[in-house]
Amino acid sequence: MTSQRNLGKNTQAIHAGEARTSTTEKSGIPLLPPIYQNSTFRFTTAAECAEAFRDEESGYVYTRWGNPTQEVLEKKLAVLEAGEDALATASGMGAVSTALLTALAEGGHVVAMENLYSATFQILNEELQRFGIETTFVDATDTAQIERAIRDDTKVLYLESPTNPLLKLIDLRASAEIAKAHGLTSIIDNTFATPCGQQPIALGIDVVVHSMTKYLSGTGAVIAGAIIGEKEFVTRAKEGALRNFGAVISPFNAWLTLHGLTTLPLRFTRHCENAARIAAFLETHPAIAWVRYPGLPSHPQHELAEHQMEAFGGMITLELKGGRTAGEHLVDRLQLCSLAVSLGDVRTLICHPASTTHSHVPAEIRQQIGVTDGLVRISVGLEDTDDIIADLEQALQSHTS
Ligand code: PLP
Question: Which is the closest atom of ligand 1 to the Cα of 164?
Fold first, then answer.
């Protein structure tokens, strides 16, 4: 495994964690890691079974505790995210909740970025509050605000960068240093950047979580999540919150994700190339007030993006001049791109938060958090760039003309 860490990203994505030898197959080794679609494992003697219960490393007992297909995926994830160990979970929220439950204890306090994925915000703002765990939300793009919010009982610093949907960036190295100085566990949701766009652990962050539903699996076929970090943390998560609360990935979803991961670097490169061209096109369009893409020199934190990101990703956010009507009009007229939530798919997905994901948020609060009525988020897919641009152009033109 150590040598796999020195290989290139494409080679890691394809080979890391996969067996080169087999103790069970007499004639050849399956080229694709097989799927162990079973809930439990059979033993031939009481002594064998007792040993498996005593020493978990010695074998598989029950799929909620461990399964060979999950483990191939976990080894691959650990190598790709440059962490010691990894855990696959049933969903991105399974990863977020398991990581938080592992890092926190009764009465602890969290400092978190104010713009977070909505369900993560709800876990911190509502669910954990019920158990006496408080969260202070700060604009972590200003790291001084993180430092100021830390209390004696703070246990966790929780971040997302780039943020959803405004694509703001947090200085991860500086944030990790603050967390270390105060003995906090730093956790980042790296779903938007993927391990190909940014390597938080190399920048000093303790724990990475993912919604593998997105870029990592890539084809929109599964709901899945991941936790990557030090072996001690991952083992505690696996043997505690994951196993007991039960957000375990199914072998089939682990297997699909495993195959999705093999093409992640290739897909991500293409997502980034498409997004860079499309962002440049949108920035010059008369119907658009502004475009946010970390790779554009006009992004307010472009310098930080260049410094800490290896690639700028496939997400673009823009503000239409015509507000909500223009936003609804644009998504109504799309012919190739799909009106859908989620991201990181091979297909281009577009959403208009004001009329969908944030429609329940009062207009003044939406305005306050920057989710304005003309805001549109694009997850750029892998179609030919010219075709995506042509679709956007006709949808934008039919409004302006
Ligand atoms: N984190 C981010 C940044 C997301 O965008 C999402 C879902 O959109 C999640 C976590 C939750 O992931 P899942 O739907 O796989 O539970």
Answer: 3
CA 36 to chain centre: 26
Topology at the third CATH level for domain 4-261: Aspartate Aminotransferase; domain 2 (3.40.640)
Reported confidence tier of residue 400, pLDDT bands at 50, 70, 90: low
Residue 255 near ligand 1, beta carbon < 6 Å: no
Q: Which atom of ligand 1 is nearest to the CA of 93?
A: 16
214 CA closest ligand 1 atom index: 15
Strands (E), 263-323: 288-292, 315-320
Residues 46-58 have a mean pLDDT of 85
Catalytic residues: 64, 117, 189, 214
- Top mutation candidate among 93, 166, 349 for ligand 1, by most atoms within 8 Å of CB: 93
User: How many other β-carbons are positioned within 10 Å of the β-carbon of residue 247?
Assistant: 20
For 264-400, the fitting CATH number among 3.30.530.20, 3.10.50.30, 3.30.70.260, 3.90.1150.10 is 3.90.1150.10
Q: pLDDT digit string (tens) for 114-126?
A: 989 989 999 999 9
Beta strands across the sheet bearing 85-89? 85-89, 225-229, 207-211, 185-189, 154-160, 109-113, 134-138
So what's the pLDDT on residue 399? Answer: 56
> Ligand 1 centroid to 85 CA: how many Å?
21
